[in-house]
Design goal:
Elements (H helix, E strand, L loop, with lengths): L17 H20 L4 H18 L7 E7 L2 E7 L9 E5 L13 H11 L3 E4 L11 H15 L7 E6 L1 H12 L10 E5 L8 H9 L7 H9 L25 E6 L5 H14 L3 E6 L16 H27 L1
Parallel strand pairs: 3-4, 3-5, 5-6, 6-7, 7-8
Antiparallel strand pairs: 1-2, 2-4
Amino acid sequence: MTEPDGPTLPAVPTRATMRAMFSATVTRWTLRPLTSVIPVNRPGVWFSRRLIATIMGTLGSMPRGTKVIPVNSPGVRGEWVLGPGVEFGARAGYYVHGSGYVLCSTGTHRKLVARLSEATGLPFFSVDYRLAPEHRFPAAADDVEAGYRWLLAQGYAASDVVIGTDSAGGHLTCDMLLAHAAEPNFAPAAVVLFSPLIDLTLGLAGRQDAVRRDPATSAAVARRMVSLYTPEHPPEHPRLRLDFSSADTFPPVLVQVGDYEMFSADARYLDAEIRRAGGTSTLEQWPAMLHVFQALPRLAPEAKPALRRVAAFIADAYDSDLSSDLEGVG
């Protein structure tokens, strides 16, 4: 695959660089021990939110000339993020940030969304959904759907929208698409997932973590975090344990994940489930990369080529959709 009228698309590396392995090792001996001792209570959540904001702010990179436009409509909070030179047009992106349902916000992810906007040329609406433990299931899911419907109400057709998401946002996005699989004109043109969390029991992540320890945190810590969002609901709840049998209704999906992180198991599972249902999924496993490495270009230079691949994937999805429309007319 090549970019339209551009240079050859960067390939997914086949082996880890020394820099990547060094970064993972340092992270494993610094951040993971720290996250393992932070209590999952109100002071611990307060500290964890500031820790993540510091990491994302320090290791992220904001493109010069980015525009941020706050949105505060009834039932919807968020912001438009337009990378340098990006203007509003007929197409747009919708971003659902990760959080473990507890930690992050549009602010922590602003630099990532700006770089995604810059790479794709799309304005992105980033939804600021409510967090646990202050707001429990299904508050985040309700906010994500409300944000998507708000975006469509601005005049965008679903077929002109792409969804980007990471970590717990992956579960929230898949839940929304599955819940409305039978609804006409609801599915977007494409979905891109960075390091998606899919199994909220953290069973998949736990087994992967036992094989290779995640540099950033453990499955046990992540499980305690998720439990703040779902304390009164069994794991078998259909909005929590997702059934992908109707994933043939999904648009083309791209999954990018680091092979050093425990959510690589969730990424492989999601890719397999979509394919099993008859949908289209592309899985990229990046050697020695950490969780949502696309947000950390100052730590992982691989973030830039990864976003270039995202941009090409989205362009292909739009081109395929246009080709289908023209065939229908013919």
